[in-house]
Design goal:
The chain is an alpha/beta fold and 271 residues long. It has two domains: 145 residues, Rossmann fold (3-Layer(aba) Sandwich); 86 residues, Putative phosphatase, domain 2 (DNA polymerase, domain 1, Orthogonal Bundle). Helices cover 41% and strands 12% of the residues. The protein has nine helices and nine strands. A six-stranded parallel beta sheet has the order 6-5-4-7-8-9, sandwiched between helices. Helix 1 packs across helix 4 and helix 2 runs antiparallel to helix 3. The longest helix is centred in the N-terminal third of the chain and has 20 residues. The structure holds magnesium ion (MG). The site of magnesium ion (MG) has 7 residues, from loops.
Length: 271
């Protein structure tokens, strides 16, 4: 990948300022937004799931573990169908949770309960769903796979002197363990979780809460995350700079992403 040379002394002919660091890049960055106010970033908040810790990959492993160890082939012999049912309901329920329509305890068990129900389980779907939830989360948090470049990015940001924090809608009992399993907990200052303040991204309150925790200002804070709604729209509305990590090829809402990257390595050209 071609990387821009970052210069701090003077603007070369044809170069442009990076919208986040204010430094000059010696060729135009495709994500350059000249209208963005240029103030130096001091504080970084990064999403955990699918931005640092590879939730999508680890969740597949954990769900398979639950299916195998809890004998769920007796409920649904076709694993892929069972997993697809779960993914459908899990995505729907997380969307409701993000927007404050349901609480975390309902989300945690309902996603498994309704999966069992749709798969045709004739026993107590709620009781088995509760057991699945416990084993899924317990095992999930032990898995170490990070998004490629995540550890290197955290090391880079720390070396550059940024205050590096995470901001996540995940559950308190597993989010720190995920970072420990991935070997990156020591590279993160504050863990700010929706469970701590009772407000989920993209709602404004959690972004204001995060600033208070980090003693930071919105103008000098950037959010890095893979969700165009919860991470990027939310942080943009709170007055933060935003770096959208486009993991799935979904365009951000126009005007909300200060910059867009497709790999974490690209963040180092911006900060
Ligand atoms: Mg995420």
């Amino acid at each position: 990948m071609i990387r821009p040379q970052i210069g701090t002394l003077a603007q070369k002919k044809g170069s442009k300022r990076c919208p986040l660091s204010g430094e000059f890049l010696n060729f135009a960055c495709s994500n350059h937004h000249p209208s963005v106010p240029m103030q130096a970033i001091k504080t970084v908040f990064i999403d955990i799931d699918d931005t640092l810790w590879y939730f999508t990959q680890n969740s597949k492993v954990a769900f398979r573990h639950v299916y195998d160890t809890m004998g769920l082939a007796a409920v649904c012999a076709h694993y892929d169908r069972f997993h697809d049912i779960y993914l459908k309901h899990n995505a729907r329920l997380w969307h409701s949770y993000h927007h404050g329509e349901i609480d975390r305890d309902f989300l945690k068990t309902e996603r498994f309960r309704v999966t069992l129900e749709e798969a045709g389980y004739r026993g107590d779907c709620l009781a088995l769903g509760n057991d699945m939830d416990k084993e899924y989360l317990r095992y999930l948090a032990t898995l170490p796979t990070l998004v490629p470049g995540a550890k290197q990015l955290l090391e880079y940001l720390n070396e550059r002197g940024y205050d590096v924090n995470v901001l996540s809608n995940g559950f308190t009992e597993v989010q720190e363990r995920k970072l420990l399993s991935g070997g990156v907990r020591h590279l993160v200052h504050h863990l700010v979780l929706s469970d701590d303040c009772g407000i989920t991204k993209p709602q404004r309150g959690i972004f204001d809460y995060a600033l208070a925790v980090a003693h930071a200002q919105p103008e000098t804070t950037v959010m890095i995350g893979d969700d165009p709604d919860t991470d990027i729209v939310g942080a943009h509305r709170a007055g933060w700079k935003t770096i959208y990590f486009d993991l799935r090829g979904i365009p951000p809402t126009p005007g909300t992403a200060t910059a867009t990257v497709s790999t974490l390595d690209e963040v180092t050209r911006l900060l």
